[in-house]
Amino acid sequence: MQPQNEQKTILPSVHALLAGAVDYAGLFPPSQLSMEDAVMNFALNRSGPYNWMLGRFVVPAARLDEFYDNAKTCISPSDKTGWRLSVLAGENIYETISQITDFNKKYSPAFVCDQLEVRATTVSKIENTANSLPDDLTAYFEIPQNENFVELVASLAKHGQRAKLRTGGVTPDAFPAAAEIIRFVRSCTAANVPFKATAGLHHPLRCFRPLTYAPDAPKGTMHGFLNVFLMTGFARKSFKPNQLEQIMEEEFEEAFTFDETSVSWHGEDTLNILQIEIMRRAGINSFGSCSFDEPVEDLQALGLL
């Protein structure tokens, strides 16, 4: 990582697209770090030159106490912002919310759980959770793309909730097809449901890579986080599914050009900074990654950082 005094000037369009975009999920595969190592990585990245890209620390509700035991010595008294946490719900949503409420009472403002990630396969799970949420907790619901998908998205919209999109894993079959991701994004866009993505988005552009860090790791095609973000932006401009699929399948950096005021696809179709900011606020809010270094290093190699 470059020292601060050697860091290049970041284009406003890049900053708008990636500010606070990476939720750090170092506890989860394929990194699957210990709590001590994950907390240390997050602390170091918070003090690094690319901390503006860093979002929340992702932690299961059952490990909140373990998190605090490891993190309590990492925060400086001069830190005015505190650490924000995104909490993965346990089986009992009411117990999870109680754990979060107790944690925030004890440790805020140094550490604040302000996001909840919960799986929901039924409308009733969405409704019961939404009705139980305190005002200072934002929930993202991971919903399946099955025969109930449209009904689930409609329920999220009705209750003012957000969605969660799973974009990969540690085996090739864990990666949804581009068309599935596009369907998810277009459905959420039509219903005004913001969302976050998680898993498999280690690299900016679509690529064929090992899926874990093991020497004998299986290889597969991984979606790029720039592809997903920019496809979301163009979906909001009502691009057709076949165009969005082309954006998702771009593997060459020349396809996307960033400048002071916009990003363009093949030099013709553009998203200006206002459209990017609206897309980040009302479309894709962030993505979870078990590595912060990989996205940064790849963006540096592309000349964007």
Overall shape: globular
Number of helices: 11
Tally of DSSP β-strands: 13
What is the residue-averaged pLDDT? 94
> What is the CATH architecture annotation?
Alpha-Beta Barrel
Largest sheet: 8 strands, parallel, barrel
Domain tally: 1
CATH domain class name: Alpha Beta
From the helix content, strand content and strand pairing, which structural class follows?
A: alpha/beta
Unreliable spans are 1-5
Order of helices and strands: HEHEHEHEHEHEHEEEHHEEEHEH
Rounded Rg: 19 Å
Strand order of the largest sheet: 1-2-3-4-5-6-7-13
Range of strand content: 15-25%
- Could you please say which CATH topology applies here? TIM Barrel
Head-to-tail CA distance between termini: 10 Å
What's the helical proportion of residues? 25-40%
Oligomer: single chain
Fold topology:
Elements: H1 12-18, E1 22-24, H2 35-46, E2 54-60, H3 64-71, E3 83-88, H4 93-107, E4 111-119, H5 123-132, E5 138-142, H6 149-158, E6 162-166, H7 178-190, E7 195-198, E8 207-210, E9 219-222, H8 225-235, H9 241-248, E10 256-258, E11 262-265, E12 269-272, H10 273-282, E13 284-289, H11 293-301
